[in-house]
Design a protein that fits this description.
heterodimer; A: alpha/beta; 6 strands; B: mainly alpha
Chain lengths: 464, 103
């Protein structure tokens, strides 16, 4: 039985590795997900088979109830969530995993309450509680921020890093006490409470625009917490699967912050995106005028141009305007206009977010251009049509060394002959930084909900 | 440290290297689905949750076990389903991608 268990866990681990590998390539990604899911079913089902004789009555009931309710909640929320709310959905699923890992750790400690736990199980249990608890609380805050139930702007207070540092230190001391001196329920409870507080205070000062990176990092954390509980339970499947996620998640986190042109340390501790009191950078924007145009003017401009590059952003996603955008693009193409989409690596709120949305509206794959591929084409383009995007076309990233986003790679929309910006209002973008492109003499703004503006443009192009 | 612990650490170290290696060439557009997919994989904690819930007896054990199984199941099931929904979108445009437009 033990040999069979080891072999089946090994097979599950192989399926997880293949799944991750396949998930890294566009062609095979969907299969990768199912391969990993097959590994999961195998590992879980076999665990139930192994446990079949040792279930207590209460054990059977709670496993069945937890599984059924959890399954229903998981399927229903995953199937009904809007594409735009995907990031926070991933955050909450991740938080659930982190919480489960912490509970497994707590359960091990509680069972030995009053007695000294052996170091080789006690230590990983404490680690699972700490890492899993931070991941749980942090993910909840990330969810609240992205769902805009609390402000997406960084919440900071003086001495924040110091307080977090002290909190972390106290947690480590408590962990040491728990392992070496006094393993009582009270100490365990206090440890858990402090860990949850640290998770909250750690994520609160990070701006909404950086949440994807944070979620990816918490994802890696949960992986490590799972690996730690694997050490405590002496379980091969937990160690290997948890570590795979911990390692690949760490690398993925770095790749994501690289795509934003920022270092991870800056993301985590920079309180990026705080609303600055005055205009940032060398080129003050105060006093410049903004030119706003009518849908008819802009429709005519688009209809009689030869090339248009569309820059979609989160505003498009919020307004669910991807279908109207495609209609506009189709209309322009029928008139012989060359239409392309320029996709910034972090357009929307997560890398790849825009690709998913536009694919949903059946925009042809070969019209979607990645940043490096299209950036040189803006110079020869008649109109750059920016739909609900802001920070990814902010020239301050190139020109103002003082700016928060300086150094972030941007789309060169400002080099096009005309720039049309569809935007709800003059409010600064998610990163909280003013955009000088709005004040450029070649720029025309069309204010309003992206979907409504696009529908108006469709009518205007038809009439032109 | 006993022999068994050393074996567990070996698993850990080797898995860490594989984890780094296996996703090293992921293109930017797949960052989100990959994060979501790996998020589902750490739902393997469901195995751990079942192990602690199976022989629960005291009230505290029952509460902890029930919560752990519930949360882990949400992680696994929701994680895989939501990842599939994301990737379903990619599939729609694969035909266009076949014509020499790799990546």
């Amino acid at each position: 039985m033990i040999i069979a268990t080891e072999l089946i866990y090994l097979l599950a681990a192989v399926l997880f590795i293949l799944g991750l590998q396949f998930l890294s390539s566009p062609r095979s990604a969907r299969h990768g997900n199912w391969i990993a899911a097959a590994g999961m079913v195998l590992a879980v089902a076999w665990t139930v088979v192994v446990l079949r004789d040792s279930f207590t009555t209460a054990g059977i009931i709670i496993c069945a109830v937890g599984f059924v309710i959890g399954g229903i909640v998981g399927v229903v929320s995953a199937r009904t969530v809007k594409m735009t709310a995907m990031p926070q959905m991933v955050a909450i699923f991740n938080g659930a995993g982190g919480g489960a890992a912490a509970l497994v750790g707590i359960s091990g400690l509680v069972n030995l309450a009053g007695k000294q736990p052996a170091f080789q199980t006690g230590f990983p249990e404490v680690l699972a509680v700490i890492i899993g608890g931070i991941s749980f609380a942090g993910s909840v805050i990330a969810f609240l921020k992205l769902q805009e139930l609390i402000t997406g702007a960084p919440i900071t207070f003086p001495g924040q890093h110091l307080i977090n540092g002290i909190l972390a230190l106290v947690i480590l001391v408590l962990a040491a006490i728990l392992l070496a001196v006094n393993n009582s329920i009270v100490v365990i409870a206090v440890l858990l409470a402090l860990v949850l507080v640290l998770g909250v205070t750690f994520v609160l000062p990070i701006g909404g625009a950086d949440m994807p990176v944070v979620i990816s990092m918490l994802n890696a954390c949960t992986g490590l917490a799972v690996a730690a509980s694997g050490f405590a339970l002496n379980n091969f499947a937990l160690i290997v699967a948890g570590t795979l996620v911990g390692a690949s998640g760490t690398l993925l986190t770095r790749k994501m912050s690289d795509a934003m042109g920022r270092s991870l340390v800056n993301v985590l501790f920079g309180a990026f995106g705080q609303v600055k009191v005055s205009a940032v950078g060398g080129t003050g924007t105060a006093g410049h005028t903004v030119r706003s145009g009518s849908a008819e003017d802009i429709g005519t401009l688009l209809a009689y141009s030869q090339s248009v590059i569309i820059v979609p952003g989160y505003g498009l996603a919020v307004a669910q305007g991807q279908h109207a955008l495609r209609e506009l693009a189709d209309l322009l193409e029928k008139r012989g206009v060359d239409v392309k989409y320029a996709i910034h690596p972090v357009a929307g709120r997560m890398p790849g977010h825009m690709n998913v949305l536009l694919a949903e509206a059946n925009v042809p794959y070969d019209q979607l251009k990645e940043m490096d591929e299209i950036n040189d084409e803006f110079k020869q383009t008649d109109v750059a049509l920016v739909v609900g995007a802001n920070d990814v076309v902010n020239p301050a990233a190139r020109n103002s060394p003082g700016s928060d986003i300086y150094g972030m790679p941007i789309l060169n929309a400002d080099q096009a002959r005309n720039v049309v910006i569809l935007k709800r209002s003059m409010r600064p973008g998610f990163a909280g930084i003013d955009n000088e492109l709005f004040y450029d003499h070649r720029t025309i703004m069309l204010f309003g909900d992206a979907k409504e503006s696009l529908t108006k443009l469709v009518a205007a192009v038809k009439a032109a | 440290m006993n022999e068994q612990t050393v074996v567990l650490i070996t698993y850990f170290v080797l898995a860490a290297f594989i984890g780094f290696e296996v996703i090293s060439n992921v293109p930017t557009i797949l960052h989100t689905p990959l994060m979501s997919g790996s998020n589902a994989i750490h739902g393997i904690i469901l195995v751990g949750a079942l192990l602690i819930a199976a022989n629960a007896q005291t009230t505290l054990q029952i509460v902890l076990g029930l919560l752990a199984v519930f949360m882990a199941t949400v992680n696994v099931v929701g994680g895989f389903v939501v990842t599939d929904r994301m990737l379903e979108m990619f599939k729609a445009r694969q035909p266009g991608g076949e014509k020499g437009k790799e990546q």
